[in-house]
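Please go through the sequence and fold tokens given here and tell me how the chain folds. Record follows.
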Amino acid sequence: MIYCRNCGNQCADHTQFCPVCGASLQTGYNTQQPNGYVQQPNGTYYYQQPVEEDKPETALCVLSFFFWIVGVVLYAVNSATKPNAAKAYLKWGLISVGISVGLGLLSFLIPMLIMLASV
């Protein structure tokens, strides 16, 4: 989201003109300051909210791996706001389910094969 340099109204990133005052919102010539303020060519500043990164947290990925239901819940909660992170949480939950099913099948098949080989 950006803010209009003329009236301070919050506008969507793709908007070219402020819907309230009609001022141009083109940001190609803005210079971002470290404190979140953007300087316009005429020397005025307006505040631009920092963009939140869409990266999964490692701890939540590990938690999703060990408890697959956590991965499903985190996917449902974050799918609208952080789609890349949500997909990572679901991926680790599904990997956990796949490994559990695979180990379960092996623990069933290995004794069966040993029993058949001894007969």
